[in-house]
Design goal:
The chain has 113 residues and is of the alpha+beta class. Strands 1-5-2-3-4 form a five-stranded mixed sheet, covered by helices on one side. It starts with 6 loop residues before the first helix and ends with a helix. The model has no long low-confidence stretch (mean pLDDT 91).
Amino acid sequence: MSARLPAHLEAGAIIRLAEAQGGFATVLAKGERDAGTILLVTTCRGEAARLYERMPNLEGSRSFVAVKSEDPENRQDFSEYLARRRRQDADLWLIEVNIDDEERFVAQIDALT
């Protein structure tokens, strides 16, 4: 039996945490209900988008790591990258979070899971 939280419950918790901190979150793409991978797109006031993906670390657990940042001069590249990832993995959840302190927010998610 896996100790992993089902993806739909984790997505809901991420949204509630963002709202509790005065931010906003929405699901851009729903993936597989129980085992889908969750990707986070964080922004601060709609600027400087950054993509986080959960990766294994040396301790054997998994935590969110920034894997791509939006280039303000070429925003389309970031959008195209997200679309490609979605096409490659139909089970993928894509959640956008607009929050003031993204690094603190991501660390809190890692602490909860």
